[in-house]
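Summarise this fold before class:
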Amino acid sequence: MCNTKKKKKRKIASLNCVSSSYLFQYGNTPFHSSSSSIETLSAAYFSSLLTSTQRGDFEGRKLAKMGTMSHSSTFLLPDLPTDNGPALTYALVILNQRLPRFTPLLWEHAQVHVCADGGANRVFDELPRFFPHDDPSDIRKRYKPYAIKGDMDSIRTDVLDFYRGLGTKIIDESHDQDTTDLHKCVAYIRELLNPEHPNLCILATGALGGRFDHEMGNINVICRFPSMPIILLSDDCLIQLLPSTHHHKIHIQSSVEGPHCGLIPIGTAAGRTTTTGLKWNLDKTEMRFGGLVSTSNIVKENIVTVQSESDLLWTISIKKE
C-alpha cells in the first residue's frame, strides 16, 4: 500500500513503493514517488493534491519522459527501405469497399493477406483490372488470400468456392455479432503473427468510404488495439492512431503523401497538444468537437512531431499521381 500524509500549510504525497522511485519538485512542494504508484493512484485524488499550475507542470513532466514512436508510410513506396531501423512485418486486410489503386503494391509488401468477408469479392472482381494485359484467372490465382474471415454474409458463393479450392482458410465467425469484420481479422492476425513478429503493422484497405457507421466502426477498432499499429487506407488518405503513451515522429513521404493532414481528437476532448512541422502548429492546444479540431492542416517539413496528453487520429492525404 502507498501511504499519504498531509501537512496543514502544504500537501506532500509520500508514496512508498518497491519499484524504482524518482523525485518531482513543484516549487515548494516535493513529491517523492514511483512509476507504479503514480500510475495506480486515483487521478481525482492526485489532482486534489495539486494546484492547477502544479497539475500542468506534472502533465508536462510526464510528457517529457515518454518514449518516441516513429511512423512512416514507406509501404506506399515501390521498394521498402532497408536502412530505416528494424524492419516492419506488414499484414494486409481487405474490406468490402473499392480497392485503392495501390493495392497490388501493398499486397507485395505484406507477408499475410486476409479478406474480411465481402473483401474477397473485391479481390476476385477488381484485382484483375489492375493487370489488363494478363489473364484474369492467372491474377486471381496469384493474389490468393491466406484466409477469409468474418460473418460470411457478404461473400458470394462462387468466390467462396473458388478460394476454398485454392486452399484459402475459411473462418466463419457468424456466431460473433459483437465485433466488426475488421476487429475479427485484426485479432486473428495478431494471434497468428505477433509472437514471432513484434514489429507487426496491419494495413487495412476498404476501411474508409461507404457507410459512415462502417467507417466509425473501423476507427473504433484501431482505438481498441492502441498498441498495434493499424493503418486505415483509401484512395484518398490514410488514418492511424497516435497513442498518448508516446511522443510521435512522423516521417513524411512527400512523393506519395501530403500535403493535407489533420489531427483529430477521438472519443473525448483532447488535452494539450504540441506539434512541429505543420503550417499551423499546435502549442499546448486543447481540441474537442464543438471547438477547435486541427483539420485541413498542411505539412511543411519532412518530419512532423506530435506530443499530446490524449490519443489522437493522424490523417494525411495520399497523392493521386
About this structure: Residues 180 and 217 are 7 Å apart (CA to CA). The two ends are 60 Å apart (CA to CA). The chain has a mean pLDDT of 83.
